[in-house]
Amino acid sequence: MPRRPTRRRRMLNPQPLTFSPFARSVAQIASIHVDRCQTHKSKDQKGSPLNSKDKGIWKHTLEGKNDLSESSEEEGSGGVVQADFVFFDPKLDDFHGVKILLQTYLDDTQWDLSGFVDLILAQTTVGTVVKIEGDDDNTPFSIVTALNLRRYKDHKCIKELKEFLLKVCLEKDVIKDLRLFMGEQANDVGLLVSQRVVNLPPQLLPPLYDALFDEVSWATEDEPTEELRNFFCFKCYLLVSKIYKHKNANQKNKRNLKRRSASDSGDEIVYIKPEDEIFHKLSLWSFSFPMQTQQVETQELKNYRLMGLVMAVEAAKIPTFRQELQSLIVET
Amino acid sequence: MATRLMFENSCEVGVFSKLTNAFCLVAIGGSESFYSTFEAELADVIPVVKTSIGGNRIIGRLCVGNKNGLLLPHTTTDQELQHLRNSLPDQVVVQRIEERLSALGNCIACNDHVALAHTDLDRETEEIIADVLGVEVFRQTIAGNILVGSYCSFSNRGGLVHPHTSIEDLDELSTLLQVPLVAGTVNRGSEVIGAGLTVNDWTAFCGSDTTATELSVIESVFKLREAQPNAIVDEMRKSLIDSYV
């Protein structure tokens, strides 16, 4: 990545010396205070709202794409930076940035990651990319989307993803459910892809997930063809994520994961993404698998091991999830 | 012929390998398919050597070489140096140099006759380059970037440079290097040519994200379509064999 001469940006303090503009931006957002949250939002809608139902035509306002933003105030003391985050629909230009975010999605397996990123970016009706306003490099800081497993089942990347998940699932009672998900029930299953830089402000999460689930429900009504509409009628979401598990934790397969109390999971599992804890609690089933990618060795995490976590969450539980995420973020 | 491949899900092939007309270096630890792709193309003609430099796998960016020699940074361990000296042909001089800018592959780009160097390189290093690699050294920038090794890649037959290089710069560089140059990208729009591509006079390796258009540009500017290794080896052979018995 280029080491261009540092540009003076209107909003941001002198930049730390790092090797790429991407790393610079990430280092700057190390501590951000959010004062207010503007949540008026409108999204670009593709296709006319064909409607054979009785309730009339839904119209979604079609202003530009970037109306949801959060800003923070600069407080004068060092280390606090002002940044405006903007939500965009996925565009093909975002290829390289999104590819970097998804580099370790399936551990260190060699798979058709480029094809996977292409799928995500081609689906403009459902999916959000988070960038910083006025950033010349247009680096994505986060990607969130939901892909129907049956719609893309013939794509090489989805086949490889299925193979990988079936290979790493070592828990016999879960593997049956997983096979059903990939096979017969694939039409109702959405792969929820959510990756971001580690220090993205958590205040962005409720609007981000709201955007995703709202877009899914709009797509079930607004997509031009019946087939496309049906693709977004998800009954269940499949998530692939990462957690840190305590090395001495009881590795035996816990049958009912919902019964795991908060105090246990506090010591046993460290969730890298806060919403994973809520998803895990609400999940229908889940399993974890060891990861080969090297984890960052820090003092706090030295007794923990990086594991992948695959969860299935019913679509019916999503409103609960949204509420709990809202209260979780407000508290922190 | 240009080949597309990946190193552990990364398309930055030029980071994990170094290809010249006399040898090829490949990073250790990658999957066997990475190594075997190189072997399949090159095994009969030049040695393919697995190595690390200073314990690192990013060997393509740390070292620089051509058919006359190989320069290694001061971080190279003695065992690695010995291993390289043993594995490479005798006419290739392997030397470790003390240079503050230790990522030699990023700072220097060269073919068998000319080298482009980072503007802040030590004078002593410049002399060593001229001496060991047998090249004429020019301090240059490419589209305003001082890391010339990262933003261009050239062989004895052609070169590819950063896409934002102006026409005047392109002409100037082409005159200096005495090869045709083209401004282009590799790996689906990546500007870092040196990281995405590694090339010699008859073959090139680039990342699997490289589009068909980019690949055809690479094949045409480096004149890879007609190039066969035997043509070059035969040429050398003619000058080596001076009598038949």
Automatic annotation (TrEMBL), chain A:
Gene source species: Citrus sinensis
Q: What is this protein called?
A: Protein BCCIP-like
> Which superkingdom?
Eukaryota
TrEMBL record, chain B:
Q: Which InterPro entries match?
A: eIF6 (IPR002769)
First-listed, main subcellular location of the protein, grouped into a coarse class: cytoplasm
Provide GO CC annotations from the record.
Answer: cytosol; nucleolus; nucleus
Q: Where in the cell is it found?
A: Cytoplasm; Nucleus, Nucleolus
Membrane spanning stretches: none
Q: Which GO terms describe its biological process?
A: assembly of large subunit precursor of preribosome; cytosolic ribosome assembly; maturation of 5.8S rRNA; maturation of LSU-rRNA; ribosomal subunit export from nucleus
Describe its partners and assembly state: Monomer. Associates with the 60S ribosomal subunit.
Q: Which family does it belong to?
A: Belongs to the eIF-6 family.
- NCBIfam families with a match to the protein in the record: eIF-6
Q: What does this protein do?
A: Binds to the 60S ribosomal subunit and prevents its association with the 40S ribosomal subunit to form the 80S initiation complex in the cytoplasm. May also be involved in ribosome biogenesis.
Q: What is this protein called?
A: Eukaryotic translation initiation factor 6
Tell me the name of the encoding gene. Answer: EIF6
